[in-house]
Amino acid sequence: MARFWQGLVGVIAAIALVSLAIIVIHFRDAGGTFGLDGSSDRTQPGVFHVTAVKPPASGAGVRAGDTLRYDPSPANVLKLSSTAPGDRIVFHDGTRDVVLTATAASKLSTTNVAFLITFLLAKLAFVAMAILIIWRKADDPAARALAVFLVAFGAAIDFDPVIFRALPLRAAALLLNQIFVALTAVGVYAFSCYFPQTADRGFRQWMRRLLPALTVVIAAVALGAVVVDYARGGVGSGLGSTYVLLYLATVGAAIVSLMLSYRNASAGERARMRWVLGTFAVGLSGIVLLLLAAIVGVNPNDAQPLALTIITIPFGLAYVILRHRVLDITFVVNRALVYSIVSVIVVGAFIIFEWLLSHLVESNSRTSVLLQLGGALALGLSVRFVHARVDAHVDDFFFRDRHLAEEAIRRFAQEAALITDADVLVKRTVEVAQRNARLTGAAFYARRNGLYLALYSTLPNATALDENDEAVLAMRTWHNPVHGQAFMDSRLCGDDAFPMMVRGQLAGFLACGTKLSHESLAPDERDALRVLARDAGIALDSLRIARIEAELAFLSADGELPPAVRLRLSSLVAPQDRAQPAGPPVRSSQ
Known about the structure:
Layout lengths: L1 H24 L6 E2 L2 E5 L6 E7 L13 E4 L3 H8 L6 E5 L4 E5 L1 E2 L5 H28 L3 H16 L10 H28 L7 H30 L7 H26 L2 H30 L3 H4 L8 H12 L11 H26 L5 H50 L6 H15 L5 E7 L2 E7 L7 E2 L3 H9 L3 E2 L12 E7 L2 E8 L10 H34 L6 H9 L3 H4 L12
Antiparallel strand pairs: 1-7, 2-3, 3-4, 4-5, 5-6, 8-9, 8-13, 9-10, 11-12, 12-13
Helix pairs in contact: 1-3, 1-4, 3-4, 3-10, 4-5, 5-6, 5-7, 6-7, 7-8, 8-10, 11-12, 12-13, 12-15, 13-15, 15-16
């Protein structure tokens, strides 16, 4: 199943990147134009009402206010909706035929170029976030839904069919775009059913059960709206408005589901959910307004700036995922990525420096060569310094909470040796592990009479294990942490167990349940818990030895014992204990 979702996201991402490459290659071409501004009649097929004209329509005698008729075939409808240079349509103005051949549109203005670059960057950000999430979280339904939403949204952004010259490809692009848009609604709907926890009752459970049927219905309506409307010559069949309303209802249901989750969430989860709700609310607000504008007949080009709100979605979710650990994906920002970003910045700076030199300094002059060499040397030497500084700040900004939690675990591991009460040691070890590693529970196991018993546990079904249990035997043999799911016949509770090795023997282990985020333990967390288990086991063994020595000191002071026995007992007691006055031994339940 994980492979299927990774493959699906990969295919959509590939389509998005191909379309991105085509757009970049043809970005200087703003498409084609017949020189007609206006709209098709919503009630009559093949009727176009002209509101303004420019070449080539103005040169053919067409005037503002004219009503033109054309063959309402799907090919002509496609040409009107996505015009490319060279497209040809025969219009009739009531007295004569007007043959118009689309010419290249005017070059993009600075504003249009800015819009295009913004949308392309957003497209790339959506796709990149989706790939990163599905790469590591394909088994998590919430992550899968989020990845599908992101990659579908990224694929749909600026997916203009006009970049395809062949009409069959242009028609396929329109249909594909509708599928991507439908998947965005399904993705956010599914995400609301599984985040932060899978819906298991009430309205959210009902929504989750409707998810397969909703996917089929919204996809069918989306495709039908395109096919039927174009078959009718661009005249709305009602499916277009139905699709828009269904889309808005789906997104609205997702928002209601997230609000219900927020109401039932814990205090810790609410902080993360506020960011998620805010990100989706701001990011989708422009799309909702754009769809409403389409219903009331507003020109899509005039309403296009509303869609700029989508930029907040990938960057907002990236911040939430990293800073507030919504999906606990800490792999996203690492040293390799930071180094790559810094390298790109440095290379870009060098290119700009070269461009400035070519315009400000005489070409091929000695001064130019010296400046180029000096600039390259300065930039090259600064890479390591800049990388180190950026790496430190990024690591501190995004992973501060995790570092503090890891530090708390390691600090308590050092303090464990000074705890003088076994009950306190055992209980605090479990609490520190559970709180700082964000576990559903933990258990402290120790060896007693050939069995490993849970001295303190917040995990259900923490039953006793014998020495021959699969997981226990693996820890006794290899002295390494084990994953409970790798042992089918083991009675070990929890997902992971960290051994407490004392003098080469397994004195006990720390069993850890699943994380609250359902994420696997990160390498740094596993290492901190391993150290905690090791030091807690040694500390407990030290308390046991101290208790035995106290018993021996008490017995060696007993005057009724034979002198030889008292001497032998006294030799087993530490020198500092023999120097202390005899007293009753300290009893412990452990």
